[in-house]
Design brief:
520 residues, alpha+beta, six-stranded mixed β-sheet, five-stranded antiparallel β-sheet, 12 helices
C-alpha cells in the first residue's frame, strides 16, 4: 500500500463554478437547423399512382393500335385469299401456255371496290407478263413455295403500300401429280390490294377503344383522389385527437381506433409518452425532494442569523455565526451535489465524448487531492495501482466526479484510525479494469444495497452528514460509461462492529470498449 505525504488538497469547485459549467449542458441552445420542406404523404402516394398511369396510357394506345391493325387484317386477308384462289382457278392452258379464262365483265366485278384499288397479275414460268397489271412486283422468294398454297406479303405499287396474296399454279399436270411439278413449269397468280379499308377499320377500332378512355381516365383520377382522401382520413382523425388533448395529458393513445398500418406508429408514440411521463414524474420528485432538503439548511441559516441579530455578547454572536457558516456549507454542498447530478444525467456522446484515458493515473490524481482531508480526519488513505496500463474509454471529468463522491462517502463514514484504500487492477481475463474503494466503516447491510443509489436515500441510524445524492451521482456516471458497480463487505476487515464496505466498478478496457461501441 502506498501512502501519501501531507499535501494541500485541491480546492473544491464553488457553487458559481459548477453553476456556470452546468448551465452550458442542459440549457445549451442548439443552432437553428436548416428548414426542410415537408413531404406530403398524400401527394407522394398520388404521384406514384398517377405517373405510372399517365405513362402507361400512351403505351396502351400504341398497343391497342397494333392489335386493332392485326384484327383488321384478318377479314381482309381472308377476302384477298378467296380472290387469288378464284383467279387461280381461272388459269387454263392454251397452246402450251397459261392464260386467264375470265370474261371482261368478270374482271370488272373482280376489281370492284368502293375504297381500295385491287390489282391482279398472271406471269409465266420464266416471269413473263401474261395478263393483268404490270406494276405488281414479283416476289423475292429464293425457293418457290408449294403449288396452290396462298402466301401474303407487303409491297408497294406506284409508291403506295399494298397487301399482296400470291399463288403458284401448274396447268400442265393433273391434280394428283401437281405436288411433284417442276418449278420451271409453274405460273404465278398475284392479287394486290391497297390498305385504305384496313386502315379505316383499324382506326375505327382504336377510336372505339380510346375515346372511352378519355372519359374513364378523369373518373379514375377522381376515384384515386377520393380513395386516398378516405384512406388517409384516420391519420387526420388521430392528429385531431392528439391536438384536443390537454397539455398535461400523457396517457396512452387508443390503438384500437386506428388502422393496422398505423398501429406500430401509435405504439411507438405510446412508448415515448410512457418514457416522457416517467421522466417528468422523476423530475417532479427530484424537485420536491431537493426543495425539501434545501429547507433544513436554509431554515437553520435564517434562525442563526436572526439569533445573531438579537445577541449582544460577542461570544454568542460568534457561536451563531459558526452555526450559520456550517449551515451555509451544508447548503453549498447540497447545491453542488444537485448540479453534479443534473450534469451527470444530461451527459450525451455529442457534448462530452468518451476518450481513451489511463485509469490508474486518474485515480492516483484524485486520491492525492484527498490526502489532506484524510489527515484531518485521522484516516489512513492509500492507493494500490496496477503494473499494467489500464486504458478505458471515459470522460475524465465525470470519472473524477464519481471517484470524489465515493471517497467523500468512505471518509465520512470511516471512524478515526480507520483506513480507506483505492485500488486499480485488471480482472482475471484482462477484459475489464476494476476500480475498488475499500473502507473500514460501519458497512452497508445487504438489504440496503439496492436502495443506497436512490436520490436522498439515507440509511436509518446514520449520523454522518450528507445529502443522500453522492451515490446517485455515482450510479448515473457508471451507467453513462456502460460500466457496473457492486457493493460488498470489506474482505480485509475483521471487526464485527465495523465490517467496512467495498465498492467495485468494472469498466471495459479500451479494446473491448471500442468493440462494445460498435455493437450498440
Amino acid at each position: 500500500m502506498i501512502f501519501y505525504d501531507d499535501r494541500p488538497a485541491q480546492e473544491s469547485p464553488s457553487v458559481d463554478d459548477l453553476a456556470s459549467e452546468q448551465s452550458t449542458i442542459p440549457f445549451q441552445f442548439a443552432t437553428q437547423p436548416e428548414e426542410h420542406i415537408q413531404r406530403s404523404l398524400f401527394g407522394e402516394i398520388l404521384d406514384w399512382m398517377m405517373v405510372p398511369l399517365l405513362l402507361l396510357w400512351p403505351i396502351s394506345i400504341g398497343v391497342t393500335y397494333l392489335v386493332a391493325k392485326s384484327i383488321a387484317n384478318q377479314p381482309f386477308d381472308r377476302a384477298l385469299e378467296d380472290r387469288v384462289t378464284v383467279l387461280a382457278q381461272q388459269v387454263k392452258e392454251q397452246k402450251g401456255k397459261p392464260v386467264l379464262a375470265m370474261p371482261p365483265a368478270a374482271r370488272d366485278i373482280f376489281r370492284a371496290d368502293d375504297v381500295d384499288n385491287v390489282y391482279f397479275q398472271l406471269t409465266g414460268p420464266v416471269g413473263e407478263q401474261i395478263d393483268g397489271d404490270r406494276e405488281i412486283p414479283l416476289p423475292a422468294d429464293e425457293e418457290k413455295p408449294p403449288v396452290w398454297i396462298v402466301q401474303f406479303r407487303y409491297d408497294s405499287i406506284r409508291n403506295t403500300e399494298v397487301r399482296i396474296a400470291y399463288m403458284y399454279v401448274d396447268v400442265h399436270r393433273s391434280a394428283r401429280e401437281r405436288a411433284g411439278a417442276a418449278t420451271s413449269d409453274l405460273a404465278l397468280v398475284q392479287v394486290a390490294e391497297t390498305l385504305d379499308k384496313r386502315m379505316e377499320l383499324a382506326n375505327q377500332i382504336v377510336k372505339g377503344v380510346i375515346f372511352p378512355e378519355f372519359i374513364i381516365l378523369p373518373v379514375a383520377l377522381a376515384l384515386v383522389w377520393f380513395a386516398l382522401s378516405r384512406g388517409l382520413l384516420p391519420l387526420a382523425e388521430l392528429q385531431q385527437r392528439i391536438r384536443r388533448r390537454p397539455p398535461g395529458d400523457l396517457s396512452p393513445i387508443d390503438s384500437g381506433q386506428v388502422p393496422e398500418e398505423i398501429s406500430p406508429l401509435v405504439r411507438s408514440l405510446n412508448d415515448m409518452l410512457e418514457r416522457l411521463s416517467s421522466n417528468i414524474d422523476m423530475q417532479k420528485r427530484f424537485i420536491a425532494d431537493a426543495a425539501h432538503q434545501m429547507k433544513t439548511p436554509l431554515a437553520g441559516m435564517r434562525m442563526q442569523s436572526e439569533l445573531a441579530l438579537r445577541q449582544t455578547s460577542q461570544e454568542e454572536i460568534h457561536r451563531s455565526l459558526l452555526q450559520l457558516a456550517k449551515s451555509s456549507d451544508s447548503a453549498t454542498r447540497l447545491v453542488n451535489q444537485l448540479l453534479a447530478l443534473a450534469r451527470a444525467e444530461n451527459q450525451t456522446p455529442d457534448t462530452n465524448p468518451l476518450i481513451p484515458l489511463e485509469l490508474a493515473q486518474l485515480a492516483r490524481e484524485v486520491v492525492q487531492a484527498w490526502v489532506q482531508t484524510s489527515f484531518t480526519s485521522q484516516i489512513d488513505l492509500g492507493f494500490e495501482g496496477s503494473d499494467d496500463r489500464l486504458v478505458v474509454m471515459g470522460n475524465p471529468t465525470m470519472l473524477r466526479e464519481m471517484l470524489n463522491n465515493l471517497l467523500d462517502n468512505a471518509l465520512r463514514y470511516t471512524p478515526p484510525k480507520g483506513s480507506v484504500t483505492v485500488r486499480v487492477r485488471a480482472d482475471v481475463e484482462g477484459r475489464l479494469a476494476i476500480l475498488e474503494i475499500e473502507d473500514t466503516g460501519p458497512g452497508i447491510p445487504a438489504a440496503e444495497r439496492s436502495h443506497v443509489f436512490e436520490r436522498f436515500y439515507r440509511i436509518l441510524g446514520s449520523n454522518a452528514e450528507g445529502s443522500g445524492l453522492g451515490l446517485a451521482i455515482v450510479r448515473e456516471i457508471v451507467e453513462r460509461h456502460r460500466a457496473e458497480i457492486d457493493i460488498f463487505n470489506n474482505p480485509r476487515s475483521h471487526d464485527l462492529k465495523f465490517p467496512g464496505s467495498l465498492f467495485r466498478i468494472s469498466l471495459p478496457i479500451e479494446l473491448y470498449a471500442a468493440n462494445m461501441e460498435n455493437l450498440v
